[in-house]
Amino acid sequence: WSNLQPDGDKAIADLLIDRIAGLCTSDTPPSEAHLGAKLLFHARRFEAAAEIFARILVPASFSELHVEVLYCYLRTGQRAKGRKLLESMSPDWKGSKDARHMAIDLAQHAGDWPMVAELADLEVAAAPAHAAGWILRILAASNMELPGLAAVIGAAPVELSGSMQEISRLAAAEMRHGFAEKGLRRIYHLRRERMGDVDGAALHLMA
Fold first, then answer.
1. Less Cβ crowding at N or C end of the chain, within 10 Å?
2. If DSSP codes are grouped into helix, strand and coil, which group holds residue 118?
């Protein structure tokens, strides 16, 4: 994208990109269409890129191309198309961190908590020492109103990495559901590790 406008002439670059988009018709060979779609993608023309990408996807498969189409759908608010694409892909997409994260976003917006729960289990399996997957597990269990919510919360290990917000959210859930000592211990460790952080100082005062 930047190479198309070495002199800062954005208007000319836009005209070139529009021309390339117009040339990428249904008759364009897949290899050439892919190059055109990639250019549109990097120029942040996500809707136009998605239209071309979608024409060259191999059915019932999964590739980096599917990840790019999903990203385009999310960026342009085409969530229904994103969910339809997920349903059409081969199951091995669940092994892709990027695809999982976009699928989680789609499932949460659709209120599909069973899918969030399934993806949360995969996140925990892929990164058991990170708080994000455990928080997703709790969120899914809470929204599905499962009777074992307390057990889900209690299963989270004490030693977890994550952002201050993630650790604080997990600790708050623990303190609300009968694991006050564990939650306070988590806050204590967070405070010790990030004492110099402004938010950490505020957390210190609130604890």
1. C
2. helix
